[in-house]
Write a structure and sequence with these properties.
The complex is a heterodimer. By secondary structure, chain A is an alpha+beta fold. Chain A is 26% helix and 21% strand. In chain A, helix 3 packs across helix 6, helix 15 packs parallel to helix 16 and helix 16 packs across helix 17. Chain B has two domains: 165 residues, Aldehyde oxidase/xanthine dehydrogenase, molybdopterin binding domain (Aldehyde Oxidoreductase, domain 4, 2-Layer Sandwich), CATH 3.30.365; 142 residues, 2-Layer Sandwich (Aldehyde Oxidoreductase, domain 4). Classes of the chains: A alpha+beta, B alpha+beta.
Chain lengths: 627, 348
Amino acid sequence: MPKLKIELDVNGRKISRETDAYKRLLDFLRDDLNLTGTKEGCGAGECGTCSVFVDGKLVKSCLMPVAKASGTKIETIEGLAKPGDLTPMQKAFHKTGASQCGYCIPGMVMAATSALRQNPNAGIEEIKERLGGNICRCTGYTKIFEAVELAKAVIAGDMPEDALNEDAVGDSYIGHNVRRLDAPSKVSGRLRYAADMKMHDMLQLQVLRSPHPHANIVSIDTSAAEAMDGVVCVITSADVPDDTDGFGVFVHDQPIMARGVVRHVGEAVAAVAAEDLVTARRALSKIKVVYEEIAGVFDPEDALKDGAAIVHDYAPDNVVKHIPVRKGNVEAGFANADIILEDDFSTQQVEHAYLEPEAGIAYVDADDVIVVISPSQNITHHRHMLSHILKKPINKVRFIMSPVGGGFGGKEDMIYQGMLAIVAMKTHRPVQLNFTREESIIASAKRHPSRVHYKMGLKWNGEITAIQFNMLSDGGAYGMSSEGVMRKAAILSCGPYEVHNLSVDTTAVYTNNTPSGAFRTFGGMQAQFATESMMDMAAEALEMDPFQIRRINMMKIGSRTHTQHTLTAASLDRCLDAAEKESRWENGTPNVRGDKRSDLGGDDTRAPCTLGARFTSGKNSDKERVA
Amino acid sequence: MERKLQGRGMAASWYGIARTATIDRAGAWAELDDGGTAKIVTGVTEIGEGILTLLAQVAADELGIKPSEVTIGDNDTARSPEAAHAGATRQTYMIGNSVHLAAREAKKHLFEQLADHWDVEIDTLQSFDGEVWSNDTNLRITMEEAVGICKARGVVPVGSASFTAYGTGLDPVDGSGSPWQTYVFGTQVAEVEVDTYTGEVQVLGIWAVHDVGRAINPRGVEGQIEGGVIQGLGQALMEDYQTVDGHTTTHGFAKYILPTSLDIPQINCTIVEDPDPLSPLGAKGIGEPALVPTAPAIMNAIYDAIGVRMKSLPATPEKILKALKDKVPGREMYVQNARKQRAQAHRT
């Protein structure tokens, strides 16, 4: 590979290195200089986690070829403060709790630092606009805004420096705003996530993924890839014991790599371990897979039809799981209703979009223990499944949970750890796999999309007499968490209301779409979106305030839930009271009265966003460019 | 019609804490260590929610030291007791209580030695923020000295605990069962502005009220609520993973649109504390419940503003414009009246 001589200044030190010409500034910082505080989140300039300063300008280092950086002055997160120290901005992030998973935070601190360097008097609208190129998936940005405003005040001398210190404790640490203990390592970029870890003699793994949604694998020829200089091994399902291959949170229907058939685009088919990443990537194109495409099924309603393509032989009806909940007498409940509302609702498939793409390392230790380090949300279950698949005693498989750069349920599935373990066993060398963003998006589970048919009967006084609730959900190609998601959706379905007569069915089906799995609320939001929409529609029909209709039906101590569990505690009354009071809610029927309300636009709302705040702030604005 | 219209909506919600329809368990080990510090080992690592800080607070408060003096061991199946998975809004409830109980046992061993050493009743002993004392006496030493005395008497103050949450499976026919031993409730109000020319919805304010049992770290609870609200807002208005015949058309963040700093409403959090009676800490959880009511509250607010009910998420500008175009004036009331009539017919 062609080499380049690079000379530049990084964090105040002159660097002169020969490096590969293909590298981006991001690769040079991370791989050549071991400055892993600069993270890769998307590799396309869209998320901002790789933000650095180039000659004082905020730049996404994944978009800059390293050759272009030669002769510049680079500043990274590691260079903002001396080792062991933090800048006022970093201290403010620590104080306000602005870091959660922390993966976006080095980039966010760079963008925030840039904002105040460009304009130390920036107002909140300008600050928001200057942070607009950086995505955070955990915090909801609110504590980040607070941190930037605090740092601004301290730097300007409007607030004392000790405003950045932790609040003094009272008589208990319970209920006290202890600053996050992990924040200093996150705001300084020191915390190493799995992709930041390096081991001596470590191989890089790359995965060949299915281009087809549903196809039989006729043959896989890995010989040309294996013959390449630098390739150490190529693995396929032939390297996994066929009688134990299978993982999943509820049903073990997913092989480590596709076994004879691919069921969704992006499914792992083979993997190459090589001395370096580029060789492993190049070797993928030398693997010859002959596919025989077969009919697929892409809509959950189609999946239930006679003659639909069958995704898994064990489930000829394509049903992953159906959960019924019955209580009381629904027919009698509807007969007793004064009004019946019936409608349909749908929610979409949603990507977790944690800023840290999947990554991991595996090695075999001196005691013959297979060790997997990854941001897994469920190492206990992963250890169980992998030891079973590999036919090893459970104490010979060890999972270590690396810092998780956002999970939200998306890192509960063991979609790549098995491949790492097999390569480690075959080679007895450490091996690392870091997903690209595109790979993460096509290979990892999503939030279940849902279609709900809803029928609700009520008395004129607002009391719900019966609910019929039917949810159909696309589980995609593998079971993953579908069973649990359907169960939770069914249990929570009709909302926090005591309904005496109900009939609930939730069903997830297999299709050849990207799998659906665990995602924060596990079916709870899809179900309650429908219920809470129906409650407002009912309130309008009955000419009631939305709080009132909810109070009439809400669960209280002693209420029996949809699954007939008698509650010994219930706090919805307090939540409704507090929400009504804190929001200064103006009572009334929800009949499109927005233009008549007097409770809008209070101090506890923001102004609508109007783009261009940074250009009206004056200083430097006409010649400034933010890359 | 004015170009920009505002409105408000609300939604309530409920949620269960820890694993669903099954027994849940978590283990922890604790040791009061030299220097008056502590080690806590349990199978958990931060996924961003702040659990490490929370566990340090719980251990510190029970042992009587500072959170910064607590070291939490890494999550490692070969080196730490099982605490199972990081999900299901179970970390504070399951692992928090487990750490609390393990710390309590370690402290008990220390106090037994110290009570004997000082010749006082064990229940006169207290500790907080690095000091140990006996009530109604002048006996007061640092935790560092107390651990030294305990060890000089031949005892290492260690503890271990397992915490259990008793959920039951659901009946396969009628679904009856007690899936969780504790539930949380919440309510959110949303205020929106809809641009009827572009179809764009801006959320201007969210009032989020959630019962968390007991807020161990109120700022951390707010952080979870704010993050949950914004994920809910993303799902409500813009996020949409799409496939065509199984091939995604949203394969990066240029196509898969996420909320950024310019989309963020003012979020006003109110924490309700209804302590859980079934666990020593009284805390419940907040991770997942925070985003449940956000999308319906926003859809109800959009209806309040422009009179179209968005029943299919996300409510993108394209869908809003189409709904406005298809809207017959008074249609919703017409539909509601029809419903009333249908109900009337149904009754007679």
